[in-house]
Amino acid sequence: MAVMATPAREVSVFGDAIAYFKEAADLLELDAGMRRILTSPARQIIFAIPFQRDSGEFEVYTGYRVQFSFARGPAKGGIRYHPGVTLDEVTALAFWMTWKCAVVDLPFGGGKGGVTCDPSTLSMNEIERITRRYAAELVEVVGPDKDVPAPDVNTTPQIMAWFMDTYSMHVRQNQPGVVTGKPLEIGGSRGRVEATGRGVTICALDEMSEIGLQPEKATVAIQGFGNVGKYAAKLFEERGCRVVGISDVTGAYYNQEGIYVSGAMAHVAQFGTLEGFKGGDKITNAELLASPCDVLVPAALEKVFTAETAAKVQAKLIVEGANGPTTPEADRIFREKGIVVIPDIMANAGGVTVSYFEWVQDRMGYFWKESEVNQRLEEFLLANLHEIRAIGNARGATLRTSAYTLAIDRVVKALKMRGIYA
Ligand code: GLU
Q1: CB of 249 within 8 A of CB of 242?
Q2: N or C: which end of the chain has fewer CB within 10 A?
Q3: What is the 67 CA–ligand 1 centroid distance (Å)?
Q4: Whole-model pTM?
Q5: Catalytic amino acids?
């Protein structure tokens, strides 16, 4: 188990994340020492994951877990399986989790993990072996009161079940609270699968009413049709909005009359991707981002909005379902164009909020009705979104800077109360 530190480079994802932090830190007039503490990951772990392919051949992948902060509680954040996973990316994502948990006032720090791999080239058995080895490597440092992983890009409730089982076998007792996003049968929460998409629509609809956009007259385009994008699409449709564009790795699909979201979901359930979907005209992902719509939801990966793509955006409101989709240059362009952005740490916090509810339910051994989960989710999100808006109005700041300001202030208060143990 190697432990190392990453320097923040200008071009890195973590570098971009630091730029947003700095703006809010300036507003809070944080001193240099506090900034140093808040931008240093508490622990970064890199390890080899040797495993056997179904063919019998041995392969070695690299696994990561970054525990960025424990100031407000155990580290919390997903595990990503993707070819683009690097220490820099996982560190940035763990940094964002710290602010995301704080912005919705959850008693968690921030963490994130990943394995550099392409799951589309792996069988279920291979994914199970990788997951169990990944979990076994982390046995000493994860746990319900240490660090609680969850799903992220390409990881599923089944993968969480294998993680939970491996950990429980090692510690010789059932420990459902070591991970969230589990299947219902083994301690998952009702409403967790849809929670991130639901949170996106809750935040979007609240902001739409703020800027005078009526749902029945609004058009929405969504980039990404995974766990976040597809449920967001479905819920926007349920609330009367017209979903005009959707996309996945195979391309984008646009229909001015409205895409029938359940049809798109059924297509993906049958064929695995949107390839061949006939409910809209096929366009490129870049065209989707520039397409006519009122609300645009990036729900895929980082750095989707650059100076180039941001300049072409026609939407009035951007709701960041993905983590880190907007580079600081793009953010400046949105500001100049008067496009309102609900930042990732607020817009996609619905997932981790219901993860928190799952962790609470696991500890109680008593499970809530879905309506109860959804109602509490809405309360957590809206109370904090309204607080962010009030900060923005008082300070003349964007929602992003206001969200960071609220989150950083909460973490700083916790750190100061605990003091630095040295
Ligand atoms: N991976 C999700 C996120 O980026 C959820 C994390 C969690 O539930 O811990 O927010």
Answers
A1: no
A2: C
A3: 13
A4: 0.96
A5: 112
